[in-house]
TrEMBL record:
Keyword NADP among record annotations: no
The protein's name in its UniProt record: Carboxypeptidase
Localisation per UniProt entry: Secreted
GO biological process: proteolysis
Gene Ontology molecular function: serine-type carboxypeptidase activity
Functional note: Probable carboxypeptidase.
Residue runs in coiled coils: none
Enzyme Commission designation: 3.4.16.-
Organism: Psophocarpus tetragonolobus (Winged bean)
Family in the record: Belongs to the peptidase S10 family.
Annotated Gene3D superfamilies: alpha/beta hydrolase
Gene Ontology CC annotation, any one: vacuole
Predominant location category: secreted
Length: 461
């Protein structure tokens, strides 16, 4: 007799909780669903964006933009994409400049990107850590010193809560990808996932032009500049023998740049010129960014195939009130959205954390690893990345299974690749920038597709 009302209460409670959960989840999904982005062409896939709180007490929340695969999303893998910086936006760069479904064009319209990564996967773009883009911390003391460790932890909490909101994706193959400083974020997050045993079906990681080892990565800049004709023989000598780039950067971070290093640094960048995009030394620059007057005099980008001013257009687009409303985005603690954070103080000493060894431990946990390089980048050139991966393979005893060879997209060489064991591979993307999918969208899509499908890159025409 006494049990009956109790059971009834329990069942009633369970039902109420269940209903609340279901309603909660679906209303969250409805809130985050994007009906349409201003200026976008009509599409059939769904898009979502909004916030996931990662710290309830300090009201810290990360902003995401999720694009479902164009066709058959349930059977396609899920990719998390992270841009680097540290402090730069995955939405402003990854989604709207590199491989999202749309790029901002002229006259306030979005243009369909035919080589969007959502042709092969569901893609989740995350602005991380808090303080980047639309992501925020209401307690601004969070911004005083953010580290790799904090970033990885927040990203893990984000994923746990995001999967709660999108449980239908928890069984899909999951990949973590990114570029540049995400050479820290991606392996560190993957390692934390493995360690915390919340593996979310993690199958692999892919990192492009990644920072993995400070000295090696920074010091190949001299050879890259010199071999591409950007600096003279004598400057090359000074830049390698008297003061190299890792020393310059280390001194800058520590605030004690010596006179001799300052002089060499100035000499190098005077020879290189402001009118060279260091992220792609063969690409023309967006003149409006370098120099407003020169832009008016010299509008030669009209004939360019690649819109070198797309970064600026993304900034304009993401700062429109109607766009922010459509994205469910808020500006908290900042007056405008910017590509790279102006509020965040990232611990620059973290740049020296080597992440190459983390790739080794991921490989040992049977997580597939792809490292790729846009081969026109002088910021993290291919030279150092290729040798780091090669060195890692030797160290962990992985033999070459595909010797260094060309790979193809269509009838042209798309780059070179080498595969180690059945788990680690390296590839260059020919003619690509630091942001490879921006300048070589088709080749980049081909590479990522092969990686996701676990297929070899096309080795013949
Ligand atoms: C903000 O965060 C700092 C550091 O975690 C903490 O000491 C402070 O009490 C917090 N402030 C508020 C208003 O919660
Ligand atoms: C860079 O310079 C530092 C300090 O002189 C030196 O220890 C290091 O070996 C140099 N690295 C390279 C690759 O030349
Ligand atoms: C620069 O500062 C760092 C850390 O404060 C110190 O270890 C280093 O010796 C300094 N270098 C020079 C050249 O003063
Ligand atoms: C790698 O190659 C060496 C030499 O051919 C061989 O002894 C070794 O067993 C190979 N390792 C693996 C993991 O296949």
């Amino acid at each position: 007799m006494t049990m009956l009302p109790h059971s009834f209460t329990m069942i009633a409670t369970i039902i109420i909780v269940l209903v609340q959960t279901l309603v909660g989840v679906s209303s969250l999904l409805q809130t985050d669903k994007i009906s349409t982005l201003p200026g976008q062409p009509k599409v059939k896939f769904h898009q979502y964006s909004g916030y996931i709180t990662v710290d309830d007490q300090h009201q810290r929340a990360l902003f995401y933009y999720f694009v479902e695969a164009e066709k058959d999303p349930t059977s396609k893998p899920l990719i998390l994409w992270l841009n680097g910086g540290p402090g730069c936006s995955s939405i402003g760069v990854g989604a709207f400049v590199e491989h999202g479904p749309f790029r901002p064009g002229d006259h306030n319209v979005l243009v369909k990107n035919h080589y969007s990564w959502n042709r092969v996967a569901n893609v989740l773009y995350l602005e991380s850590p808090a303080g980047v883009g639309f992501s925020y911390s209401s307690n601004t003391s969070f911004y005083n010193l953010v580290t790799d460790e904090i970033t990885a932890r927040d990203n893990l909490v984000f994923l746990q809560r995001w999967f709660t909101q999108f449980p239908e994706y928890s069984n899909n193959d999951f990949f973590i990808t990114g570029e540049s400083y995400a050479g820290h974020y991606v392996p560190q997050l993957a390692q934390l996932i493995v360690q915390s045993k919340t593996n979310f079906n993690l199958k692999g990681i892919a990192i492009g032009n990644p920072l993995m080892e400070f000295d090696t990565d920074l010091n190949s800049k001299a050879e890259f500049f010199w071999s591409h004709g950007l600096i003279s023989d004598s400057t090359y000598n000074l830049f390698t023998r008297v003061c190299n780039y890792s020393t310059i950067r280390r001194q800058m971070i520590q605030g004690n740049l010596t006179d001799v290093c300052a002089t060499i640094n100035k000499l190098v960048f005077t020879e290189v010129s402001d009118y060279i995009d260091q992220y792609d030394v063969t690409l023309d620059v967006c003149l409006s960014s370098v120099n407003q007057q020169a832009y008016v005099l010299n509008q030669m980008q009209e004939t360019q195939k690649i819109d070198v001013c797309v970064d600026d257009k993304a900034v304009t687009y993401l700062n429109r009130k109607d766009v922010q409303d459509a994205l469910h985005a808020k500006l908290i603690g900042v007056s405008k959205w910017s590509t790279c954070s102006r509020v965040l103080h990232y611990d620059r000493r973290n740049l020296e954390i080597a992440t190459i060894s983390i790739l080794g431990s991921l490989v040992n946990s049977r997580i597939r690893v792809l490292v790729y390089s846009g081969d026109q980048d002088s910021v993290i050139p291919l030279i150092n990345t290729r040798s780091l991966v090669n060195g890692l393979a030797k160290e962990i005893g992985l033999n070459t299974t595909v010797p260094y060879t060309t790979w193809f997209e269509g009838k042209q060489v798309a780059g070179w690749t080498q595969v180690y064991g059945d788990i680690l591979s390296y590839a260059t993307i020919r003619g690509a920038s630091h942001e490879a999918p921006f300048t070589q969208p088709k080749r980049s899509l081909r590479l990522v597709k092969a990686f996701l499908e676990r297929k070899p890159l096309p080795s013949v025409v």
